[in-house]
Amino acid sequence: MCKDNCSMTATVAPPSARDRLLGAALDRFGTDGPVAVSLEDVRIQAGVSVGALYHHFEDKTALIDALYLELTEDFQTGFLAELRRHATAESAVKAGVAHYLRWVSRNRAGARVLLGHRPDHDALKELNRAFLSELKAWWNTHVHYGALRPLSLDLVHALWLGPAHEYTRQWLDTRGKRSPVAMTGVLADAAWNTLKEDRG
User: Fold this and answer.
1) Which domain holds residue 22?
2) Are residues 27 and 72 in the same domain?
3) pLDDT tens digits, residue range 106-141?
4) pTM of this structure
């Protein structure tokens, strides 16, 4: 037990080999693209052994897929948290746009990965299934109370995040455009005006 004059220094565990590989992959794939980067490039930057690399990822596709899943889950978790945090449909719709723009601005390399690769396997399907199920339930609740239009989820996605997605895609291609976060007000208002139920 620590007495009055003793001090305790919290020890933080160093990143695991898997985390270092994912971090290096994010940096390299997000900057140069996965085609131009070899698995060995990622291994060297991560500072792990060949054995550690192949213990976690059998090939580059497995590494890219794992990174894609991690980024997707991070984005989806934050998006749903915004919906739960806001009481009204208007504030939540606008917060969803703000989250999208903020996430891309803070995760430029990650956004490039998500735009350039889409794995086709059960883990991603299950992740998306859970996300869309909660999103649909949230949407239908606000449709029921007359705040939002009764639209299919694919159309909801296109109208809600489509303009923000297009702006950020262009921003990722050139640093000349203003930061996506600077466009939050305009794009959030546009999404709400498109998705709200017209009571007139």
Assistant:
1) 14-58
2) no
3) 999 999 999 887 888 889 999 999 999 999 999 999
4) 0.87
